[in-house]
Write a structure and sequence with these properties.
This protein has 171 residues and is mostly helical. It has eight helices and two strands. A hairpin with a 2-residue loop joins strand 1 and strand 2 (8-9). Helix 4 packs parallel to helix 6 (105-115) and helix 5 packs antiparallel against helix 6. 26% of the residues are buried.
């Protein structure tokens, strides 16, 4: 390269790229994220399907049941789809139902933004999850699933027990 020490290049980039870079995580991330984005594109129709199918699930439920189902479904979906798109879909559903259920829309939106970013149990969930799944040298897939699912359960619990009351007080 450019920096030379005693006549030799300080960094042998071809050797470093061949032996020092974990390419599997990079390739998995590059392959998984465009597929997730394509699934939630308007042309795929999945977004409209989710909007029309989730509405009836939430109608007629108490606020706590609505919040629990809402957060659990969004948390599950965000592990298989783009976080931003999942958040936009669930905000749309929540805003459509907030008036009839008497839900604090601002509080639910803030908590939803938090919860859709807890995506770690599939490689398609986010770039960091793809890196974890492709690097079995440091962490095994069964460990990711075991601790990831435990983390998701605790996340819903914490959001329901601590997040809901605090967000309703603040907003």
């Amino acid at each position: 390269m450019c920096i030379r020490v005693e006549g030799r290049s300080l960094l042998d980039f071809p050797k470093m790229a061949a032996n020092g870079i974990l390419w599997d995580p990079i390739i998995l991330t590059a392959a998984a994220l465009p597929v997730c984005n394509a699934m939630l594109a308007d042309e795929a129709g999945i977004k409209d399907l989710l909007l029309s199918s989730l509405g009836p699930i939430f109608v007629g439920k108490s606020i706590l049941i609505f919040a629990f189902l809402f957060f659990t479904l969004s948390l599950l979906l965000t592990n298989f789809a783009n976080n931003g798109m999942t958040g936009m879909i669930f905000v749309s559903v929540m805003l459509a139902l907030a008036g009839t259920l008497g839900v604090n829309a601002a509080a639910m939106t803030v908590l939803l933004v938090f919860i859709v970013h807890v995506a770690i149990i599939t490689p398609a969930a986010c770039p960091m999850a793809a890196l974890m799944f492709s690097n079995e040298e440091w962490i095994k897939k069964n460990e990711i699933l075991k601790y990831g699912i435990l983390t998701l359960c605790w996340t819903v619990f914490v959001v329901m027990v601590i997040g809901m009351p605090m967000a309703n007080m603040l907003f």
